[in-house]
Write a structure and sequence with these properties.
125 residues; alpha/beta; Rossmann fold; five-stranded parallel β-sheet; 5 strands; 44% helix
Length: 125
């Protein structure tokens, strides 16, 4: 079964930066999926069951906290590893991310090498 990564962010340049950080994993057979809003991200997660999701918090149609909560608590998809990537670095926001079920809460700007290392670890590559 092909491992999949979903990059969900409403800003195209951020999606591209994340993609560039992990695109070498495509050589190992990893498929990279994209969403530009929370509603689309949730649909893709339901349909594609990605192993790893890089999820922005502030997105149209549904925010990342709500997407994460639905995936982890309502759908029970514990095997989906969710990294919340956001500019919102306040302790309150981190706590809200943890309560939603995020596996890791990272603030932007992010280190591309750190994202790649995290993806490799989560995917077992």
């Amino acid at each position: 079964m092909t491992q999949k990564i979903l990059i969900a962010d409403d800003e195209a340049h951020i999606r591209q930066l994340i993609e560039q950080s992990v695109e070498d994993l495509e050589d190992s057979g990893v498929e990279i999926l994209y969403a530009d809003n929370g509603e689309s991200a949730l649909k893709i997660i339901r349909a594609e069951h990605p192993s790893l999701v890089f999820l922005d918090v502030m997105m149209p149609r549904m925010n990342g906290f709500d997407v994460c909560h639905q995936v982890k608590h309502e759908l029970g998809m514990d095997s989906v590893y969710i990294v919340m990537l956001t500019a919102k670095g306040q302790e309150f926001d981190k706590q809200r991310g943890e309560e939603a079920g995020a596996d890791i809460y990272m603030t932007k700007p992010f280190d591309p090498d750190e994202l790649l290392a995290l993806a490799e670890r989560v995917l077992g590559l």
